[in-house]
Amino acid sequence: MKIAIIGAGITGLSAAYDLAKVGHHVTMFESASKPGGLAAGFKSARWEWHLEHFYHHWFETDDDILGLIKEIGVRDKVFFPQPTTSMYINGQIYPLDSPLRAILFPKLSLIPKLRFGLAGLYLRLTEDWRALEKVTAHEWLTRMMGQTAYQTLWEPLLVGKFGDYYKEVNMAWFWARIHKRSQRLGYFEGGFQAFIDALTETVRAYQVRLHFNTNITAIEPQANGQLQIRTHADDTQIFDQILATVSPDLLSQLVPTLPTNYLASLKRLESMGAVVLTLALQQSLTSRHYWINIPKKEGFPFLALVEHTNYVNSRYYDNDHIVYCGDYLKPNHEYFSLSKDELLARFLPSLSRINPNFSPTWIKESWLYRAKYAQPIPLINHSANIPPLQTPLPGLYWASMSQVYPWDRGTNYAVEIGRRVARLMK
Ligand SMILES: Cc1cc2nc3c(=O)[nH]c(=O)nc-3n(C[C@H](O)[C@H](O)[C@H](O)COP(=O)(O)OP(=O)(O)OC[C@H]3O[C@@H](n4cnc5c(N)ncnc54)[C@H](O)[C@@H]3O)c2cc1C
Fold first, then answer.
1. 394: number of CA atoms within 13 Å, CB side?
2. Hey, which of 13, 30, 38, 213 would you mutate to test ligand 1's pocket, going by the most ligand atoms within 8 Å of its Cβ?
3. Is the pLDDT of residue 402 over 80?
4. Is 29 close to ligand 1, i.e. is its CB under 6 Å away?
5. Which of the 8 DSSP states describes residue 152?
6. Which listed site, 168, 207, 236, 328, has its alpha carbon 20 to 30 Å from 288?
7. pTM greater than the 0.85 cutoff
8. How high is the pLDDT of residue 181?
9. What is the arithmetic mean of pLDDT over 265-276?
10. H or E stretch covering 10
11. Interior CA angle at 365 toward 360 and 369, to 5°?
12. Which has the closest alpha carbon to 292: 227, 351, 356?
């Protein structure tokens, strides 16, 4: 079959790999100038390794992506450091990434700590996420671990990821985070982009054709059952099947002829965007913390501070100390329209709260990356609302972050869903 894939992110590349391996003629169309989508990276001219536009790591339990990495022969390039994940509370930064560190955490008394520990243990052990999707994480966690532990430790994380929606996210999503994640975090030599480039080379070796800087603007059904795609330059090509790996919003724009009830189901899928300002500093900001969650009530203009070079050695980045300041926001938030300089002016004063010696003169370079579709929001009973991978239009398939569930979207699940949709298309 002649198959088109829209999007050369990890979902599209994984599907292309399996489809081309069994002999289909696969053509990929990607609007960006390189593959990788949300997991792609960039490189300062001084650096040896790429850095992700948006902070990225893997977990030891990410079997789908680690399996694919092994299959394409680059497993020796993955390494698993154990960086420190912490929480900022009232001027102090507390490491909080293991049961022992939770026990030693001075901001909670014994009973809330015990309830926190027992609720966590239950989530590690239970497999029944379907019962949990009927209740919000906010209700379940408040009930099971009590207000004190919940408000101190988990509520900030929910607020950070889902903003105004934090009370609506279902408990199955939260279960998935606790149930499966490891303390060690995986990375790829050369950055995630190096893995993406290796996967791209592998699919090219199977004769997959890749067109970059090519924006698809429409998918049009033909009278004979085939599908036509239209590019921004108004070129058209005919295919037997098409896989779109774009957001629900974009899918409905590309194919307005989809049945009304299907379009309505796409519209119901909510998501958050991400804004990440990245700084290359002359010196380390926190010396040992990789990831610092910052509760909204602390009044910072962003919610996560990630010092990448406390995870991956700064020698690969010309000894720069790399700090990401990130936030998840609704796509209409003003951060999506402010310039990098305007965001720098808002963000930089707060860095002295992390390190009083910080000075803007430490900044060697800075970058701003934004994505309006970055984090789907799983509401109550979400499993009933996920559109299937096969759309009602014969030959058209759709695989996106919005269909990854109950697991939190991530490159591991992009591989899983990409390979799952490829099995359907064969
Ligand atoms: C802030 C942030 C942090 C993250 N952290 C992690 C992490 O630590 N670990 C992890 O594993 N994952 C993480 N993720 C998630 C991970 O990046 C995604 O789950 C994964 O990359 C999704 O891949 P995808 O191929 O489904 O989608 P995408 O990467 O979005 O790929 C879709 C592709 O389609 C292209 N496209 C869109 N429209 C068109 C069009 N009209 N024509 C042609 N091409 C088009 C896009 O340019 C893009 O390349 C993070 C994401 C964000 C935003």
1. 6
2. 38
3. yes
4. yes
5. I
6. 328
7. yes
8. 81
9. 96
10. helix 10-21
11. 105
12. 351
pLDDT digits (tens, 9 = 90+) for 88-117: 999 999 998 888 888 888 888 999 999 989
List, in order of start, the domains of the chain with CATH numbers: 2-50+191-268+386-425 (3.50.50.60), 98-180 (no CATH)
Give tens-digit pLDDT for 45-75: 999 999 999 999 999 999 999 999 999 999 9
Q: Is 341 a residue whose pLDDT tops 90?
A: yes
Q: Read off the pLDDT of each residue in 16-38 and give the average, rounded to a whole number.
A: 98
Contact 81, 189 (CB under 8 A): no
Helix runs in 216-339, H state only = 248-254, 260-267
CA separation for the pair 196, 254 (Å, rounded): 26
Stretch 163-175: mean pLDDT, rounded?
A: 94
Q: State the closest ligand 1 atom to the C-alpha of 29, by its place in the atom list counted from 1.
A: 43
Q: Is the CB of 54 under 6 A from ligand 1?
A: yes
Q: What is the pLDDT of residue 100?
A: 84
Strands annotated E in 81-215 = 84-89, 92-95, 185-188, 209-211
Distance CA(208)–CA(17), nearest Å, equals: 8
Distance from the alpha carbon of residue 39 to the mean position of ligand 1, in angstroms: 6
> Which residue's CA is the closest to the ligand 1 atom numbered 7?
56
Q: Helix 110-125 and helix 137-149: axis angle, to 10°?
A: 150
pLDDT above 80 (res 147):
yes
User: Which residues is 419 bridged to in the sheet?
Assistant: none
